[in-house]
Amino acid sequence: MIPAAMNRIATRFGQLRATRRTALIPFITAGDPIPDATVAVMHALVEGGADIIELGMPFSDPMADGPVIQHADERALRHKVGIADILGWVREFRARDDDTPVVLMGYLNPIEIHGIELFAHEAVAAGVDGVLVVDCPIEEDDTLQPLRDAGLARILLVAPTTSSARLARAIEMAEGYLYYVSFAGITGAAKLSADAIRARVAEMRQRAQVPIAVGFGIKDAASAEAVAEFADAVVIGSALVDALSSATTAGEACRQARAFLAPVRAAVDSIQR
Amino acid sequence: MSRIDDYHAWPDAHGRFGPYGGTYVAETLVAPLEELKAAYLRLRDDPAFQQEFADDLKHYVGRPSPIYHARRLSEKIGGAQILLKREDLNHTGAHKINNTVGQALVARAMGKRRIIAETGAGQHGVATATVCARFGMQCVVYMGAVDIERQKINVYRMKLLGAEVIPVTSGSQTLKDALSEALRDWVSNVADTFYIIGTVAGPHPYPMMVRDFNAVVGREARAQMLEQFGRLPDVLTACVGGGSNALGLFHAFLNDRDVRIVGAEAAGEGIASGHHAASLAAGRPGVLHGNRTYVLCDDDGQITETHSVSAGLDYPGVGPEHAFLKDSGRAEYVGVTDDEALAAFHLLCESEGILPALESSHAVAQAINLARGLSKDKLILCNLSGRGDKDVHTIAKREGLEL
Fold it and tell me: A109 and B303 in contact by Cβ < 8 A?
C-alpha cells in the first residue's frame, strides 16, 4: 500500500511548478504557545499562504535549535505535549485539509522511546507526509528505515559544511525535498547572506531530483524574497514562532499567524520562476 | 550480545560500541566532527604528539599518581583490602586534567585558538581554563545557572584563570543544558573554535578520544599493581556520571577477565524515589547529545531531571562504552545513595586523612560495600578521582552548618 504521504508533497510541488511559484513552508512548534491553538494555527497558516507545514515535535534537549525554538519546546512540554497529541492534531487538521503536506520535525529520542515502527505506522495513519529527524544524519540512516518502509518521506538536511561526497549521498537518498540550512549554525541565529548560498543551491537543484528548500535565518518578507529568487521553497521558523509566542488564545494565535505570513507570501510571489 | 574477544578493539570505524555510540548530530556538526576525527586519528599515531602529552602529564599534571593502600580503612571494614588510585593528587585536583591537556594539544595541532567547554560541578571547567591559561588560548565555559549558584568557588577559579563563564538559563539550567549550549556555540563558530568535552559522551570521536586521554590512569595502575602487589586487583571500582574517570581506570583491565569491574552510579535519594542520576541502573537505551546510550527519560522520551548530592554525577546520560560494557556483562553498575556517599566521605577523612570529592565518595562507598563481602586477602582498587575541597561547603550545608 502506497499511502498518500509522499504523493502529497510531490503533488504540491507539481502545482507550484505549474504556476511558477516558490513554495512557502512555515514551521511551528506543536502545542505552542498553547496546545489548543495548534490545529487552528495550521489552518490559519494555510489561509495565510503556506504550501507545506512543518510541525516541530518538542524535545527537552533540542541541541540543534536556537533559543526561540527551545523556549517554544519548553512551553509545549509544560503542557506535556507528546507524540500522541501531535498525531491527534494532524488527524484533526486532515479532516478539513487533505491537500497541504505536513512534515514533522524533531529529535530521535522521543520517536525511539515511542517505538519507531509504531510511530511510522501511526504517523501515516494520521496523515503525516514526511519526517525530518534533526539528530539523525545520513550516516545513521538505518535507524529510520521504518519511516521509509511506511511511506513517509525522509527529509534530509544539507549544510554549507556538507562535503561534496556527502552531498551526493544526500541527493541520492533524499525524499520529498532537500532542506538546505543556509548558514553553518543553529536555527534562527545568524543573518542570512543570500549571495553566499545562491551558487550552492543552484548546484544542488541541478543534481537533485527533489526540490531544494532553504531555511534557517529567514525572518521576514525581505529575506524570504531574497531566497525565493533561487530556491524551490522558503522555510520560515523561528521568526514565526517568536511572533506567536505571546498569544494566549487560539484566535489570537491564528490572527498573528495570518498577519505574519501574508506579507511573506506576497514577497515570495513577487518572484516569478 | 555475542562474546567480545577484544575489548580494546572498540569503537568500530563508525564510533560504535556494539549498538551504542555513533554520531547522532545535526548536519551542521558532521563536518567539524569529521575534521576532528581525522586530526585525532593522525595525532594518536604520532610519536611526537604522544611524547609531548606524556611529558605534560608528568611535569604539569604530576603523574604518575600513586596507589595508596588504605590500611586503617580496610581494617575498620574488616574485609578485602582497599587500594586508592590517587587521581585527587593531580594538578587541579582531579582526573579531568588528563583529558583537557590532551584535547588542548589536539586543538593546538588543529590551529584552533578559541576553546569552549561545558561544566557541571565546575571541575572540567577549571581543568579546561587551566590548560587554556597555559597554552594562551581564549576560553569560554558554559555552565548552568543553577550550577553557578551551587559552585561559586569554581566559577571564581575559572575567572581567575582567565576564562569567561557564560550562564545557561535554558531547561533545567544544569550540565545537560550547558552541553547543549556549548554544542550550539561550536556549530556557530566552528572555524576557529575547539570544543573540549569533559566526559566520555557526545558524538564520535569524543567518547573514544576522552577515554584514550584518561586511559593513562588504568595503564599506570595496572603496572603499579604488578610492581607493588605482584598481581592485578580482584575488583575495580569507580564512580560513573558521564564515566570518564571510570573508563580511564577500567580500560587497561578490560581484557583481564579475572578482574571484576563495578561502576558506582549516583542513586541520589534512592532509585525507587525517582530522584537519582543512575542512567545505567535505572535508565533505558536512547539517544542524547550525539550518541546512543542509556538515558533517563520519561515515557514520551523527554530527558528527565536528575538528582545527586554530587554535581559531577548529575547527568541523565552516560558514556556509550559503559552501556556496551553493561550489556556485554563485562562490567556491573550499581547505585550508591547520597547518604552512603556521605558516610564514605567521613569514613575516609577520619581513617586515612584523605578528603575525597563527593563524586569519588560514591566509589569509596562502593569499595566499602564490596570489601565487606570479601576475604582479607582480596584487593579492591578504587579510583579516587578527585579531592573534596570543592565540596566542603555543600557538605557543611547539608549537615546544618554555616561556614
Answer: yes
